[in-house]
Amino acid sequence: MDLIVEGIVRAFQLLIQGDPQTLKITFLSLSVSVSATMISLVLGVALGTVIALNKFFGRRFVVTLINTGMGAPPVVVGLVVTIFLWRNGPLGALHLLYTPYAMVIAQCIISLPIIMGFTLATIQQVDPKLRLQIVALGASRMQMLWLLLRETRLPLLAAVMAGFGAIISEVGASMMVGGNITNQTRVLTTAVVMETGKGDFGLAIALSIILMILVYLVNFALTTVQQRSKTR
Amino acid sequence: MNEVNQTSAPPLLEAKELTVVLGEQKVLDVPSLQVFPNEVLVVIGPNGSGKTTLLQSLALLLKPATGTILYRGQPVQNGSNLLQLRRRFAVVFQESLLLNASVWSNVTLGLHLRGVEKNEAKQRAQKWLERFGVSSLAHRQAKTLSGGESKRVSLARAFALQPEVIFLDEPFTALDNPTRQALTEDFENVLRETRVTTVMVTHDRNESLTLSSRVAVLIDGRIVQIGNPRDVFSCPVDDRVASFVEAGNHLPGVVTAQNEGLASVDMSGAQIQAVSYIAMATKVTVCLHYEDITLLAPSSQTVPSSARNRLAGKIVKVFPLGSQVKVTVDCGFPIIALVTKRSWEDLKLEVGQTVVASFKASSVHLIPHL
Questions:
Q1: How far, in Å, CA of B313 to CA of A49, rounded?
Q2: Which of B57, B99, B141 to mutate to test binding with chain A, by most A CBs within 10 Å of its CB?
């Protein structure tokens, strides 16, 4: 029991004192996951919309693949990205392994199918007649797409939350492609794993609490936007 | 088949050899259809007859399998031309199809998409919201509106575009009766004022009859009759049209005599007379509107002079319909008459008693079986 109390006290000490190490870890966690979410958002919404609105050969296969990707184990993603970025690997020349960029790439691959899958389902749920009405109002193809996204903004925000939630809490891939290097690629999740391994439960609990608060705050912000535009 | 009653102006919109195929099935086959400036063309037909498909093809929302649509004599091509032409039209669907936004932004959306200048857009939105009596709802969210309110907003949205042609797909079908009547009235006034060229499809023969310049009957994807409403409703060209457009009796008969436009028809033994030039020995369908039949007590001496036909029969069924009563009389074949409640009460008759069904020879419409 002391362990937990100690952890909580420690967490607030770290936060209030503004421990530079902790702040650095927190900041990196946030910036890696936010960047990855933004990139997946742009790609995922674009690709999801294209797949939702078009019929093509192998569509069912692609959709199944996306849905499978929504549950892809981060360690597998980590393994694949590591192989690709390995010194002799296909993209080894870029020297990205064990950098935050590698982590962004891995997290993108994890969150992209989630955002794509949500977008796909959302856009497909829009009444085809509404699309016809938008065309009849005189929308060009781009205007139509924009209006469709505006129309589905609430479920799309849910997609963002799901995508962000998946990668801020992910540890396997970040560990493998980032390497948990102090001051360079250490993020909250990898630090928790390490501290737990060392038996420093106090610090592990402290970092976990910070992680939870972070996830809560981001989701609180997104939920506020979502619910406000709903009742407005 | 295409009866044109506005030969003065060239057609605004024209379809030629139009076919639409859905899967294996040809759902629309219209060799020729013209829409003239300022007319109100109402296309009626039963469910599944291809009305919506026809409307969407004309509104350039659906690519036909074959055929050409001409606008002001120019064939419509794909690409930017299509978008530019769509921006001259407006479409009101059966559902209101408002976007999840305020009423105001719904009404101004089309105007923005069409690049209408901001002040102008504002004025038009205001004007048409007012015209349809919903300006007080401008700041409400579209999804909080009732069915009737949404419909008014969607009509305002369409008219604000000041389209050259407005297309309406069963616009009043989903509404309850009082809402629908109030809205139909407003809508008719707007049409009368703007004289905008209108194409409306509906399965309801009663919808906007007062306004239509022409009525086209669409059955199984084909236009089987087109003409002014009176002709279509009083002289349907075949059984299918008759059974769709007429609330009347359709009975088999044979012409037994022809006397300079007055045909005698044998209907299972009973003789009636009809104003028609159909030749002797032709098998016909006898069409007789429910309202055109007067019921008389057998003892009654007061017979309307022009009512040449009198058929006696037993009352088999009485069904009150609001201010009217639907009476089925067995004259060897069942005849249905629709009489006012008042005249039914005056007759003091009941089921099982004998009554005389009387109707004019000119009320009878004969369709020859060729």
A1: 68
A2: B99
Closest residue in chain B to residue A130, using alpha carbons only: B97
C-alpha distance from residue B343 to each of A6, B6, B319, B324, B346 (Å): 96, 42, 14, 9, 5
CB A120 within 8 A of CB A51: yes
- In the block, which residue shows the tokens 């509106």? B145
State whether B86 and A138 contact (CB < 8 Å). Answer: yes
Instruction: Say which of A129, A132, A138 has its CB closest to residue B87.
Output: A138
Along the 232 residues of chain A, how does pLDDT read in single tens digits? Answer: 787 888 788 878 887 888 888 889 999 999 999 999 999 999 999 999 999 999 899 999 999 999 999 989 999 999 999 999 999 989 989 999 999 999 999 999 999 999 999 999 999 999 999 999 999 999 999 999 999 999 999 899 999 999 999 999 999 999 999 999 999 999 999 999 999 999 888 888 889 999 999 899 988 988 888 787 654 4
Say yes or no: ipTM exceeds 0.85.
no
Residues of B in contact with A147 (CB under 8 A): 99, 109
Taking alpha carbons only, the member of B19, B10, B123 closest to residue B69 is: B19
* CB contact at 8 A, A40 and A163: yes
Residues 6+ away with beta carbon under 8 Å from B154: B92, B93, B96, B97, B98
B56 interaction partners in chain A (CB closer than 8 Å) = 132
Convert A13-34 to b/e letters by CB count within 10 Å (16 or more is b). Answer: ebbeeeeeebeebbebbbebbb
Inter-chain touch A151–B109, beta carbons under 8 Å: no
